[in-house]
Amino acid sequence: MQRIRVAQPRYWLVGVVVLFFLGFPTVISSFLASEWAQALILAIAIMGLNILVGYSGQLSLGHGAFMALGAYVSAILAHHYKMDYLVTIPIAGLTTGLVGFLFGIPALRLSALYLALATFALAVVSPSLIKRPAGLTGGVQGILVVQPDPPATASSVFAALTGTAMTSDQWIYYVTLFCAVVLFWVAWNVVRHRPGRAMRAIRDGEVAAAASGVNVAGFKTLAFALSAFYAGVAGSLYGLSTGFVSPDTFPVSLSIQLLVGVVVGGLASIPGPLVGAISAYFLPIESSQWVPSQAWIPTQIVTTVKNAGPAVSYGVILILIMIFAPNGLVGLARTGYAALNRRLRGAGDRETGHTAAESQTVSEPD
Amino acid sequence: MQEFLQLVVSGIATGGIFASLALALVLIYNAMGLVNFAQGEMAMFATFVAFTLIGRGVSFWIAFPVTLVLAFAGGILVQRVVIKPVERAPVLTLVIITLGLATLVNGLAGFAWGYVPRSFPSPFSPDSIDLAGVFVGYRDLGVIAVSGIVLLAVYVLLQHTTVGLTLRAAAHHPEASRLLGVHVSWMLALGWGLASAVGAASGMMVAPILLLEPNMMQSIIIYAFAAAVLGGIESPLGAVVGGLIVGVTINLAGAYLPFVGGDLQLAVGLAIIVGVLLLKPNGLFGRAAVRRV
Amino acid sequence: MTNLLELEDVRAGYGPTSVLHGISLQVPEAGVVSLLGANGAGKTTTLRAITGGVRWTGDIRFGGRSLRGMSTEEIVRRGIAHVPEGRGICTELTVDENLRLGSYLRRDGPEVKKDYERVFEYFPVLKQRRRLSSSTLSGGEQQMLALARALLMRPRLMLLDEPSLGLAPIVVRSIFEIIKSINESRQVAVLLVEQNARLALNLSSSAYVLEVGRVAVEGDSAELQGKESVRRSYLGY
């Protein structure tokens, strides 16, 4: 009988990470804080997409469009209806979640590949669709978002700790961090309780899941709705963080970036989206700066990389990761961890005939 | 009435372009069960190669077949280097890889030729000819002719040659083909080469109409998806018929439906995709899943 | 007489599951050998190992040369035709296209023509349905197509996996007669996997009975048929 080892959720690690992110802005520049805010925003969107792709097994190449929807809902409410931006964030999330739910219904009838096709087409078309109702959306120019000043309490706490005044960017970073922590916690709970189990059952075999009494249609549309909600919140925060929304800030490459973040980080894992987001955001920037500084890479490759910008190195790295580490970076870490474990424990499992690779490790207790 | 016929004819011309790219998609789908999201970018890259050749004084009619050959070789190279290592991976991994490939090729094109749109010379005269009262451009006729020849050539290759037979056998029945001595792996590479060449034809046909730049094929591939899905993603004939229907439809929609302007024609493409997938997922000529042996 | 095919202590399996635990068998030139046994005994896996469809240890030699490390295509090109369980018909293709796949490796044009004629003599229905999709054929007709295709390869050895499966007795009898005729007139060796032990033993000169991945009984077909204890324990009749 296979032994299923369940890794205890490493609460202490989570605590360290959260503390790190809390303290981070006190030691880095305001600009870097806004960059990290954007990475966190991506992490939220990727977490949502992960629920859809990694846990329920449905493939979407169009979640950039959902982000756009969330961003525009917030921007329109704030600009045309003068609502407090922070209030618009959950509204944007819920609206997008509802739309996601409505999308999830016809999506039930599409096979994985066709769903990818349809959502890809959606991502390509959405900038044009946004430009149309120019009165509402500001057309090509988009809508400006006023970035709020930090409230007095936060500002004074920050000043007490660091001796400098809190900037708008830093306040926005903390708002984003708060949303990210809350949403990750929600996702973790969804995934380790009944909805998560149901979704994984569906992903691993729809027919079998249905035969076991799982409400396949219900959970699949729930996954869609949830992932859209996350994307909507992320989009809304994105508008806040950059200070404006426009059709061109949500191109098809964003949707691809999200999916890539899911896969590179590691499907069906909770830490995956965070790792994936950081990679997806910083990798293109860093690699186009790092590669030229390496002496052992021939000059022709270096100039190619420098001139073609992030795209080439991004594409190459993506392909390499898919070939050599298809379980994503988290999966790679886990395999490394398992291999280390095996070596440390020696021949322990030999009498049962099973190797460590066969016993499953799930990241959350069932 | 005249205008309607003119729209139909130029719709058939654009349809020929969509059909070629759609055929490339169908070829790879039949071989591997996946949609190559990089097909459009590969076609764009080949078109830039043609552009460079023409810029050096090579006539279009020589550059065209030379580019087809180069694209063929490129397709084989891509399959051997990028796809083969992950042949047995799940579809999601392969899809991501094609997306990575698309990004990579797009970036390489941007590096090599920049992002400034170029004009690509058409080999056909800009005049029109009067056919029974309808004015048809030579360029449209030219595109129809060239696409027609390319598609016909592929048809003859697949249906009436031994190579085509082994290609089809390897694509649909890899295990059984191995037992007949077919080098299935090389057949897959050939399939990629063929798809790449057909896609290149599509790129060279569309470049004179749009402007040549790295993002040129991104809307074309949506139409090609629509055509492939409409025709049935497993059916080469479906790709051709689908392409023609999509071409004519977006032309007519653009002219006669008031709210469909230039960039919203793409939304018509999306509507076709979604509509077909919801109403008749197998398309016009597709079948339900074929058991592969 | 040298052996055309030799298996020596072959072990094979799928992933962690081991199916064959040391099979040794020989097929002489132009001989007919049966491979019998219950379901799951490893008969199909044995055939798969020969044509490289499953990883194996030990040695498999064909015409004196070891098949180790060769791909399926290479092995087949050496002169082995394998008709798998389920027949392996390319249902996307027409009957004629399936037949062409059988002969496409050959370079001897006139001989190919002759073989086509013989094939149509054996199986006239295939000639009638040449242009039709092979998916329109009945089970028996598909078996005929598979055999015809194998014939067109002009192999030195044919591996047949359950040719009688799902077919009416009349059809089975005629197919077995054709197999016999092919073996005698063309000197093609046959390794036959069959559930229908009686038919197989009638046709073959020697037989091996597999049980749970090992050779339980082997010997001359006539002798095995004669021994009632063997028949009862291993062959089910």
Main sheet: strand order of chain B: 1-2
| Total E-strand runs of chain A | 4
Major sheet details of chain A:
2 strands, parallel
Mean pLDDT of chain B: 87
| Largest interface in this structure | A-B, 44 and 43 residues
Distance between the termini of chain A: 18 Å
Q: What are the secondary-structure elements of chain B, in order, as H or E?
A: HHHHEEHHHHHHH
Protein model, in words:
Chain A is mostly helical and 366 residues long. Chain A has helices spanning 11-27, 30-55, 63-80, 85-107, 112-131, 134-137, 152-162, 168-192, 194-204, 206-211, 216-242, 252-265, 271-290, 299-308, 310-324, 328-345, and strands spanning 5-6, 143-144, 244-245, 361-362. In chain A, the strands form 2 sheets. In chain A, strands 1-4 form a two-stranded parallel ribbon. In chain A, strands 2-3 form a two-stranded antiparallel sheet. Chain A is globular. The two termini of chain A are 18 Å apart. With 293 residues, chain B is mainly α. Chain B has one domain (20-225). Helices cover 71% and strands 3% of the residues of chain B. Chain B is built from 11 helices and 2 strands, in the order ααααββααααααα. In chain B, β1 and β2 form a beta hairpin. In chain C, 46% of the residues are buried. Chain C has a domain at 3-86 and 156-235: 3-Layer(aba) Sandwich (Rossmann fold). At the A-B interface, α5, α12, α14 and α15 of A face α4, α9 and α11 of B.
